[in-house]
Amino acid sequence: MSAQLDQLTAAAANDPDTLETKEWLDALEAVIENEGTDRAHYLMERMVDLARRRGAHIPFSSNTAYVNTIPTHLEEHCPGNLEYEERLRSWMRWNAMAMVVKANRADGDLGGHISSFASLANMLGIGFNHFWRAPTADHGGDLLYLQGHSSPGIYARAFLEGRLSEDQMLNFRREVDGKGLSSYPHPKLMPTFWQFPTVSMGLGPLMAIYQARFLKYLHARSIADTSNRKVWVFCGDGEMDEPESMGAIGMAARERLDNLVMVVNCNLQRLDGPVRGNGKIIQELEADFRGAGWNVVKVIWGPGWDALLAKDKEGILQRVMMETVDGEYQNYKAKDGAYVRKNFFGKHPKLLEMVANMTDDDIWRLTRGGHDPHKIYAAFKIAQENKGTPTVLLVKTVKGFGMGKSGEARNTAHQTKKLDDEAIREMRDRFAIPIPDDKLAEIPFFKPADDAPEMVYLHKRRELLGGYLPQRRPQAAESLPVPALSAFQNVLDATAEGREISTTQSFVRIISTLLRDPNLGQRIVPILVDESRTFGMEGLFRQIGIFNQQGQLYEPVDKDQVMYYREDKAGQILQEGINEAGGMSSWIAAATSYSTNNRIMIPFYTFYSMFGMQRIGDLAWAAGDMRARGFLMGGTAGRTTLNGEGLQHEDGHSHVMAATIPNCLPYDPTFAHEVAVIVQDGLRRMVAEQEDVFYYITLMNENYEQPGLTPGTEEGILKGMYLLQAGDAAAKQRVQLIGSGTILRESIFAAELLQKDFGIAADVWSAPSLTLIARDGQDAERWSMVHPTDAPRLPYVTQLMEKTTGPIIATTDYMRLFAEQIRAFMPKGRTYKVLGTDGFGRSDSRVKLREFFEVNRYYIVVAALKSLADEGVIATSVVADAIAKYGINPEKPNPVTQ
Question: What molecular function does GO assign, one term (predicted)?
């Protein structure tokens, strides 16, 4: 303690002229009192600027003192009935606890979290009672990204409101029978309740930032009036360590997202222990956000501290507050008032003197700011009214507030879900819950009569704000017609002889057609991440413009070109820069606009498939949870389609990842007409029928002739497989070649070689979606298993292959696992051989890469011959002859190991 005392007195001891210092401080105080804080700030900035210009070294600091940002005299007090609100919060705390504890007494492994809501309850209460608007005819409603682990408290509130039944509360985390409540916010599982999923952690802050920007986009383009709507996102201080949490705060400030409020619940703890035991998380976050250009409001100390801080004329208390680390603060709230007196106020004699007339209980009742309704209301009010910048509220709370010895401010608080009878009794007494002793063991829910004044007040507050939250709109009220397939005739027809184009170019034609559509044109949202020129989409820059709230404040360097870079206040393109996660977050905002804005939007997010799917996998899963609708376009897809790019650019696994998301429909089309059929059907399902699915479509930059649509194959394209070309009907031996993407063309060439060099016919099958074929097979297999007395259902691919003969060879530009999905559904007794691109990519030409990965036409021929030889149809010497004929090196290392 003596060392800390020495540090506290050092500043004063080093002041060579204390009188002069006092005069300057008195002068500043007079300016603040007479002319306001803005004038004081201006004068200070001028003085700092002068000192620096004269050579003074004044280090930059984006931190302010460790006190509340809003001074006491500027606080706007909460206008509500605080007695009613306190009782309502207490009942919610109790019911949240009861729900979790009852679930775990019935089944000890269900889990659940009490402590997060316990620290957040006051903040959520103020928001729900006074700030957050529900959707109405004249207001689109506020959007809430609620801290995921606080879900029990949200359910507890909805239970008091009558929106959830006791039976649902008793089935917390028991969803399978259809009457339970999801563990965290899951729109997929509770489609009329939760607006957004906010677990896994870090995704809430990132998605909220781009959601706020998308509201600005809709308003600027006159699609929806979003001028009075706010996006509120709640997250924990430990959650801010997730890179996604902080990764886009610069964009939020740059885009002036004053419709965004981030509330960081600084309870100083994460799952295992302190967030910054040796530091101060609030100060760290303040520096980050203030440096990025945010409006930062700190709510640290409750009202009991105001009088003490007013007495702190020498700044001793503030210095102790600043120098005390978070690990100590956590310890104080886990102990008692006597401990705080000795270990906090005891750091300086004058502090002990300051609290001499306070009892230990008085000291213990010195609360943190996040538990005081007036402090919270004042901060929320400033955030609500702030213009020009996003706002972050750094609110200090106690994790597990009210849980007593079982969890309050303890490292175990996050995981505490089983309270003993004594802890339950303590909580009952602390929050004055009217439950008698003989009922405590049952941990009953508490809900007063509907006409109780507190309940009337609860409903009235929400009535004034338009209705109840959270709530989610499962369908848009509007209906939009989609164009017929014939609208895309320019890509359905075969290309002229000698004319070669890629599926990427075909997609550009498709999206250009959609942009001209009178019904859908304004609802198309092209999203790009600095690869427009790679995909040949730069023509859209001038055509529809790039959205920028400031417009274009400069003359672009390429203004003299036809396809110059044009930014516009009403631009239609969302250009996210080198930022796949940001692009995906914008896509999610657009893909769920039917729900959040009652406006159907159709986003096309085009990205390098390698950089896209593996980087945004967690967000893609969240999109499934949010029932997103839109198109993800994986450009330059496949392991061998990129000339010269190498290991980190070549994608052989994005379709394997996409297959893991149940409501994602993945396609790997080879031809332009296949892309058109898939996109048009996607529009029908997602826009016209408002089905909760989204599409992942891979595109290639390899140019080749396009054969055009054969009428009647549309159904097969959409199901995932169809016969592209039949082999010679008179041939004695026959094989079946399945392919997708650009490697389908290698199967076509292999069929020609088999016929020409060996007299073997090959039927060639295009498989735009091996994943959908596999899902169909699994569905048929499951149906047959649970209906054993009925005739078994045959999977679609089985029906196709049963009509054929010969070995089946599937080849793709992806890992073998991709085509292995359908092995189980091949007809019994048939050989099924898979070729794929397992292993790391590398730089070379397409021809060399396909040779390296053993997926070119020659390897397909050899695989077909070897399969025939294994079946005894041809001699093995024929296979050896083919290997020699095509110059294949039998001793070449397996590409998987290279």
Answer: pyruvate dehydrogenase (acetyl-transferring) activity
706 contacts 501 by C-beta, under 8 angstroms: yes
| Segment 244-302, tens digit of pLDDT | 999 999 999 999 999 999 999 999 998 888 999 999 999 999 999 999 999 999 999 99
Report CA-CA distances (Å) from 473 to 139, 348, 626: 14, 57, 11
Sign of CA dihedral 799, 800, 802, 808: negative
Of 47-51, 236-240, 284-288, 513-517, give the lowest mean pLDDT range.
47-51
Q: Are 260 and 205 in contact (CB under 8 A)?
A: no
Confidence of residue 406 (pLDDT cuts 50, 70, 90): confident
How far is residue 534's CA from residue 667's CA, in Å, rounded to a whole number? 21
Q: How far apart are CA 703 and CA 738, in angstroms?
A: 21
- Cα four-point dihedral sign 648, 649, 655, 658: positive
Helix ranges, 171-315 (H): 203-220, 243-246, 249-254, 281-292, 304-311
What phi and psi, each to the nearest 5 degrees, are found at residue 782? -65, -45
Sequence letter at residue 541: F
How far apart (Å, rounded) are the C-alpha atoms in residues 374 and 198? 27
Residues forming a β-bridge with 698: 634
- Judged by DSSP in three states, 764 sits in strand
Pairing mode, strands 761-766 and 722-725: antiparallel
**Burial class, 194, CB count within 10 angstroms (exposed 0-12 / middle 13-18 / buried 19+):** buried
CA distances from 127 to 132, 232, 282, 588, 680 (A): 6, 10, 21, 25, 43
Show the CA angle centred on residue 253, arms to residues 247 and 259, nearest 5°: 105
Q: In the numeric block, which tokens belong to residue 554?
A: 């400069």
- The rounded distance, in Å, linking the Cα atoms of 324 and 66 is 10
| DSSP assignment string, 23-79 | HHHHHHHHHHHHH-HHHHHHHHHHHHHHHHHTT----------SS-SS-GGGPPPP-
Ramachandran area for residue 536 (φ above 0: left; ψ -120 to 50: alpha; else beta): left
Is residue 3 pLDDT above 50, yes or no?
Answer: no
CA distance 218 to 661: 28
Q: Is the peptide bond before 470 cis (omega within 30 degrees of 0)?
A: yes
Check: CB of residue 302 under 8 Å from CB of residue 397: no
DSSP 8-class letter at 466: T
Cβ–Cβ < 8 Å for 150, 401: no
User: How far apart, in whole angstroms, are the C-alpha atoms of residue 65 and residue 63?
Assistant: 7
How does DSSP assign 361-373, residue by residue?
HHHHT--BGGG-H
Q: Among 649, 628, 701, 694, which Cα is nearest to 667's?
A: 694
Tell me the two tokens of residue 894: 């397996």
Spatial distance between the Cα atoms of 765 and 629, rounded to a whole number of angstroms: 29
Identify the three-state secondary structure at position 456: helix
Q: Which residues pair with 263 in a beta bridge?
A: 234, 393
Mark 145-162 as b/e (b = at least 16 C-beta within 10 Å): bbbbbbbbbbbbbbbbee
State the DSSP H helix or E strand holding residue 605, giving kind and residue range, or none if neither: strand 602-608
Nearest one of 742, 730, 662 to 700, comparing CA atoms: 742
d(CA 654, CA 676): 21
Q: Are 821 and 659 in contact (CB under 8 A)?
A: yes
The helix (run of H) or strand (run of E) holding residue 265 is: strand 260-266
Residue 293 near residue 248 (C-beta atoms within 8 A) = no
pTM (predicted TM-score):
0.95
Q: Do 129 and 383 contact (CB within 8 A), yes or no?
A: no
Tokens matching residue 425: 């009794």
Distance from C-alpha of 474 to C-alpha of 637, rounded to nearest angstrom: 33
DSSP string, 613-640: HTTSHHHHHHHHHTT---EEEEES-SSS
pLDDT at 238 over 80: yes
**Is beta strand 631-635 parallel, antiparallel or unpaired with respect to 567-568?**
unpaired
